Amino acid sequence: MRPSSLVLLLASTLSTSTSALAIEKRYRHAWPQAIRSYYVAAAEQLSHLRATTSTSTLASLTPTSCNIASPTMPSISGLPAVSDGLTLYHVAVGRGTQNYTCDIAHPATTPVAAGASAILYNTTCMASVAPVALQKITAAALNLPTPQENKVLFPAQALSSGHHYFTDTTPTFNLHTAKTNYGIQFTKLLNKVPVPDDMQQLGQDQSKAVPWLKLSSSNAPEGLLSDASPVKEIYRINTAGGSAPKTCDAMPATFEVQYAAEYWFWG
Q: Residues 24, 39: contact at Cβ < 8 Å?
């Protein structure tokens, strides 16, 4: 089993894997440190679940069947708390790129953010049953190739819960897939904070992690219909990579930086 398939498979079906410990021992030596660290945490959680949970309960766990009330989002210094009355709706890991532009005629200028693009993977179940492994998955995912729409990433493809992209300048979370529909969320930025020093996860190109964010729902851009969704607030946390270099020196007019992040949806 390829590491890319296994990491994303376990993100949503951790507790149902039947050969995780054997696979971990067989492949761990060949994986980058971030993937090894993630998989060790996942294997330990799996072992604990098997020791404390009935076989029938384990077999019943799916990406949509976990107790969604049980996950606890990490406290985030500097970001406002979740608004009163909201409950957890969905948790996803995004893997894709942060996009930038440069004025190549002025190499000393700072790159300008130009949106992002990512595939979202359903990690709601993992947030419930394996929060320690979830904390490590963004760094692990950043060690894998960027997912491509025209290539099958079996078996992780079945775990996709949608896409993140920008509609003009509006951050958009389109949680439509062939199997699930969590709605479309158009959002706006409320707050952002730098990544805590002890949570900094560099990209393979040594790019720093993009800031942690709190987003709120907003009206659909003009000319678009908003799909009914209960989501009111979204947090982007536990980011890995994605930041642009400090200047445009030696950079092209447009470029992408690999990133991964956790997204917590509240409604």
A: yes
Asked if residue 267 lies in contact with residue 102, where contact means CB atoms within 8 angstroms, the answer is no
**pLDDT tens per residue across span 57-69:** 666 665 555 666 6
The answer to whether the CB of 18 falls within 8 A of the CB of 1 is no
Largest CA distance in the chain: 64
Yes or no: say if 226 and 186 are a contact pair by the CB < 8 Å rule: yes
37 vs 7, 19, 94, 135, 261, CA distance in Å? 11, 18, 19, 11, 17
Buried b (16+ CB within 10 A) or exposed e, 180-208: eebbbbbbeeeeeeebeeebebebeeebb
* Peptide bond just before 171 cis, omega within 30 deg: no
> pTM for the full model?
0.83
Cα separation, 11 vs 197, whole angstroms: 25
Question: What are the pLDDT digits (tens) for 35-92?
Answer: 777 777 766 766 766 677 676 666 666 555 566 667 889 888 889 999 999 999 999 9
Between CA 167 and CA 154 the distance in angstroms is 29
DSSP 46-61: HHHHHHHS-HHHHHH-
Q: Which helix (H) or strand (E) holds 162?
A: strand 160-167
Q: Which residues contact 119 (CB under 8 A, 6 or more apart)?
A: 94, 95, 96, 147, 149, 160, 162, 163, 164
